[in-house]
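ok so heres the complex, three chains, lmk if somethin looks off
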Amino acid sequence: MLVPSLMDGLLLGFVYGIAAMGLSLIWGVMDVINLAHGPIIALGMFGIYLGFTGLGLNPYLMLILVIGGGLLLGVLIYWVAVHRVINAPHLSTLLATFAVNMIIIGIATAIFTTSPRNVDFNLGGFPVGPITLPWTRILAALASVLVTALLYLFLYQTRPGKAIRAVSDNRAAAELMGIPTSWILALAFGLGTMLAAISGGLISTFFPFTILAGSSYELKSFVICVLGGLGNPLGALIGGLLLGALEGIIPAFMETSWVPVLEFVLFVLILLVRPQGLLGSKT
Amino acid sequence: MSQAPILQVQDVSKRFGGLQALAHITFDLPQGEILGLIGPNGAGKTTLFNCINGIYPPEEGRLVFQGQDITGLKPYHIARRGVARTHQIVQPLEELSVLENVMVGSCFGHEQRSLGESEGIADEVLGFVGLVERREQPAASLNVAQKKRLELARALAARPFLLLLDEVLAGLNPTEIAEMVEVVRQIRDRGVTILIIEHVMHALMNVSDRVIVLDYGEQIAEGTPGEVANDPKVIEAYLGDPKLAERLMGEE
Amino acid sequence: MKKQLRNPGLWLALAITAAFALWPALASNRAYARETSFTILKAVAFAASLNILLGFTGYVSFGHIVFLGLGGYVGFYLMDTFGLHLALAALAGGLSSAILAFLLGKAILRLRGAYFALATIGVNEAMRAFIKNFEPFGGPIGMTLNFGVYRAYGGPDQALWMAYIGTALLTIVVVLVSFLVKTSRFGLGLMAIRENEDAAEVMGVVAPNAKTWAYVLSAVFPGILGVLFFFKNGNIEPRDAFVLHQSIEGIVMVMLGGHGTVLGPILGAAAYQRLRGLLLVSPLFKNIQLAVAGVLLLIIILFIPAGAVGWLRTRFSRLRRVLV
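and the predicted structre for the whole thing:
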């Protein structure tokens, strides 16, 4: 009972990790907590859904379109909503991204309504000893690892990636060195939303969802970021695995409905006890 | 000068990671004195202020104010005992008016005045530092020199026994410096003891009764301005400038 | 105190609030007008309470709705199980929210900026998840008042008017308290914390205590409000009591009117509720009212961050005496 539930949790944890990585990247580079994260996750889900049910496209093929769309959407959101208040107090960016949240949810609810959808896609299972793991989850976990690896390659081996790290490190100095910081911030925001869209797309291959489903993954992303350290992509993946494992283990000891209680109590406690330690060096 | 010192700094040390910011600093500050604190950049002067007014506690040593141990107390506790300070980098409460800024000092300083009383005190202090016409302006709209005066006004409105002045002259032109030095003297004449950090040497040397020199967190000299300016260790700390004494004591 | 009461800004704020409160007495369809006014007054009371923390102290509480939900639950439980009178239940609700804020204040108010905002979200979500599992409060189903309870107040209609009058009085008290805080020594300390907490401490403001009391004050009224609201509603469920979205709408109202002013949250709350009502009625915007509200919020944040009252105060300095 414990082992399969733990395996499920861990596989899911990879995908949580990707969602949290998006939040974490944006926070780390520009000190913005993106409250539009949840709706973008939901858009990722609907992207796969529309491609699959509308055009009959394979979900993993459709994911490529979702990746491109997520990136562009993020860059757009940055220029429209974030750029003007990037140096204002935290409240401004929190509310600006929340306004984007309202806009996306408002429009998407009008189009899609809030009725539940699912991507009816099944690849069968992979037997591991006495248990069977669904292929969709295994592929989602593998895709998450691949995305993380590519993100690291991008950040450490390419010019724009290095520029993102420079801007994250010291925006003023980067500007003086001739880096177009605003475009780099827009790119980083785009990458963050792209990761959110990918996680949504992957989740849609095994869970049913509504247009509002993103918000619970957004909240999980907050918990993970605090677990793994805000602004630290690899930490987000590890935090995701931790949360996934937790969600796998807790039901063995108590009712599933207690899982969120523990998650959020843990979240607040970590914020209190190790605000610098687990949140990285930025305060 | 025979009465008990208002502030005793006893063997105070503070580290930041591997950096020894303060090492065994010890001195007494008698009531009514102006004590200057000098030293090259990074010598630990502002760190010492931060220890005295409770921004962070020293790792070793004791701070005694008016005969009572204040080591490890929070800034607001120390403020309420009658210590006020200005900041090297001005810290105005930007969206509040100049008057409100100064009233905060008076309301929450050691006299704990009411709002009504504070307004009177604030007006008086603003007159003293020459900002009274700007009382309704938001603090953010002041220029640097005016913000420095505002810092001073806020500290004075608390009616402190001990005033810590951190580079109140920096960034001012010669006329403004002369005015500010006069203001500092007048504050002392009202019975306030002053510990002052300053880079504008001739001004500091003129206004101080005694001077302490810090270098890399160590207390390398102490004495009257004349003694300190001729101290070989001090000259060495200032890059071995043999003309230092003349520079320090010279030009008004 | 006397000088404070002579301030025309106070009377303007109270007059506007009273006008909202008295409108149903003059309207032709009184029950309908009462419902409209109830929504507006609830928003005003919530926004003005939130403003004590957000506007005066500069701490952004994203999960402030937790106080409305918790207070509502405690009061509701006392009325439902022990038949406690609405007035006493309302006080108990306020008290429980105040206690929660006091305990939380000692802990999470140490966090600054976005970390505090995140922690408040965590607290709200933890509370909702906990109440869902808490059987005495009805777990995930919540509680429903049985009809007999209304009989003690002379029938449902009387009971609804009573809840309304309670809410109106509460709103007036919140506005008055908010004004008194803003023009007091305590309020000056809070605003010093908002502008620069470290500098405020150096000047002697005991920031940990001041922040905690501001938090308690901003929590007690939503607690009372929750009891009045859910009493009127007749039932309470976890998913209605701790809606994160409503917290954020509260922030939007404060920002719209002008944070840190007394009048701002009143006008902001009323305007936001009116706008929402209009959008919901209009066939064109019915489905995308949320998106329209989002666009509006974005415009405010990007172009008039001080809010309407804040903008007027900067633009026309002569109005400052009236627009507190």
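quick notes: Chain C touches chain A at residues 54, 60, 62, 107-108, 110-115, 117-119, 121-123, 125-126, 129-130, 132-133, 140, 244, 248, 251-252, 255, 287-295, 297-298, 301-302, 305 (CB under 8 Å). thats all i got rn
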